Amino acid sequence: MTDDTFRLTALDVRRYDFGSALRGYDKTRVDQFQEQVAVELERLLRANQELELKARNFHEQLRAFRERDRALNDALISAQQLREETREAAQRDADLLRREAQVEAERLVREARAQAHAEIDRLRGEARRIEDEIANLDRTHRTYIAQLRLQAERQLAEVAASEENALPLVTRRERLGDGTSDVAAPAVEGSDA
After folding, report:
1. Is residue 132 classed as helix, strand or coil in its secondary structure?
2. DSSP structure class, residue 1
3. What percent of the chain is modeled with pLDDT above 90?
């Protein structure tokens, strides 16, 4: 069964009926365990929703940074076009005016490029930091789920061991197949046999 086809909710855990059988589970302990699992599922769901919200916010910030990057590139292109227009106007004027306008346009372009490159570098660093943080959050989430799964498997193993210890002695010998002909008295409930 994959994660996509099986969704367990806290309500499912609370409403699940284990049924009853002779010498069945302690109903109070099963109910307590169900409640603990339901509370933990609710907590995990809230934590997962918070992580998803943070991830969405980080993606939105990244999108905004990319839009700024595009705007800065457009500004750089506009500055380059301005330089060309300034040069053409200066060529129509006297040589002296042309040289002064060209020097000023080149200075403006250098400053605009320097500022744009500095801002682009800053935005890229911020984007990398956000991507790293998202990756760290994802790793933390996967680690937590793995730990929860391991804890559930341990508890299931403890339940299985508890069931094995609760069987009468005769039944255990039959299951072990030791072939003894002794018939021991059934284990008394509550004993450590």
Report:
1. helix
2. -
3. 40
Residue 87 contacts residue 101 (beta carbons within 8 Å): yes
pLDDT at residue number 1: 38
pTM above 0.85, yes or no: no
Does residue 185 register a pLDDT over 60?
no
The token pair that represents 54 in the structure block: 């943070």
Residue 64 · residue 71 · CB < 8 Å: no
State the chain's mean pLDDT as an integer: 82
Between helix 95-166 and helix 27-92 the angle, nearest 10°, is: 170
Distances (CA, A) of 135 to 47, 131, 132, 142: 16, 6, 5, 11
The CA distance from 129 to 187, in Å, is 63
Task: Give me the count of residues in the chain.
Answer: 193
